[in-house]
């Protein structure tokens, strides 16, 4: 299963962005969103920033991911 994740762009050099969320950093190409700039939030999938979104929407999505993770953790039988 593939998942696209909202991440904040921390730096950009030669069409490659350093993106971060929840303490995790990845490098992603910004060739599909050439107008991206440092401080923007992007949906990152398979090594590419595929779309920009506003910070509020990004944080809502991250909150939903955290809620899903908590539900999953609660459902694990030990």
Describe this structure in words.
- By secondary structure, the chain is of the alpha+beta class.
- The chain has a single domain (5-75), classed as SH3 type barrels (Roll), CATH 2.30.30.140.
- The chain has one helix at residues 55-75, and strands at residues 5-13, 16-21, 24-29, 41-45, 48-53.
- The protein has a 5-stranded antiparallel β-sheet with strand order 3-2-1-4-5, with helices on one face.
- Strand 2 (16-21) and strand 3 form a beta hairpin.
- The radius of gyration is 14 Å and the shape is elongated.
- The two termini are 25 Å apart.
- The model has no long low-confidence stretch (mean pLDDT 93).
What topology emerges from the helices and strands here?
Layout: E1 5-13, E2 16-21, E3 24-29, E4 41-45, E5 48-53, H1 55-75
Antiparallel strand pairs: 1-2, 1-4, 2-3, 4-5
Keywords, separated by commas or semicolons:
single chain; 78 residues; alpha+beta; SH3 type barrels; 5-stranded antiparallel sheet; 1 helix; 27% helix; 41% strand
Residue stretches low in confidence (pLDDT < 50, at least 5 long) are none
Q: Helix coverage percent of residues?
A: 25-40%
The amount of beta strand, in percent, is: 35-45%
Determine the oligomeric state from the structure.
single chain
Morphology: elongated
CATH architecture title: Roll
Largest sheet at a glance? 5 strands, antiparallel
Count up the helices.
1
- Give the rounded overall mean pLDDT: 93
Please identify the structural class as seen in this structure: alpha+beta
